[in-house]
Amino acid sequence: MKRILVLGAGGQIGSELVPHLRKVYGNDNVIATDLKASPALAAAGPFENLDATNATAIAELAKKYKVDTIFNLVALLSALGEQRPEFAWQLNMGALLNTLNVAKELGCAVFTPSSIGAFGNNTPKDKTPQDTIMRPNTMYGVCKVSGELLSDYYHTRFGVDTRSVRFPGIISYVTLPGGGTTDYAVEIYYAAVKGEEFVCPIPQGVYMDMMYMPDALDAIIQLMEADPSKLQHRNSFNVASMSFAPEHIYAAIQKEVPSFKMRYQVDPVREAIARSWPNSLDDSCARAEWGWKPKWDMESMTRDMLQQLAKKLK
Q: By 3-state DSSP, what share of the chain in percent is helix, strand and coil, each rounded to 5?
């Protein structure tokens, strides 16, 4: 990667990925785009307002900046997607199809994140295999499975260098939660630092895979820099770091903040989504094919999250 165009740069992943990419590849070589202006992203490098459902606009920017890689991060997340399923399909799949067609025309590589949301109730729950049944029951998940298949098609049919990972829930102190089922694992840290009781929407005993944002950023770059001859899979790799239920993250926070309190008020929609997803992923293919290895666990992440949020919320 030398010149990178990022679609949806103002979202949860993009707002941290863009600065990370700029540190690695240089400020001028990472072009951030989004529907809304982002003074923070524009201050350090190129920024363009862009509607990712407009294929012509994507192509024009890709040509203008002579990019060789496109990161498509545009998506309506799981819980919000259930509120607006038709819009979720139009946005999620429209942006991806446009990206793939531009990449086909200009010879660009493409990264598009997939998710544990691609799995469903019939998927093995523990150590979910890389290759397994995928029958999601959310529009978000349907879009992710469709996106994986479409990306693989563009690779095999047109030779587009498409790559992807299935992210678990991503935990970050930089970006506020954006309507995902796993967002409780971010919100709980804010409550702890603010000295508030946390009302948990996910029931006790419901496990989901999670990952700290620094590991997620490293995974993206490692995959995109990997030797393509070693990639038996492309769209999309399981990646894993930690798996826990609400009571476990609560206990980890209580070790650092003994006065912290939590109670349950279950959201039936989020509970149903969470129960349909894997408890944990088998990421052995990512480890074997491109050297994936996480650096953070729940305890080290918890200490860092509390420290960083304490500084942020002063």
A: 50, 15, 35
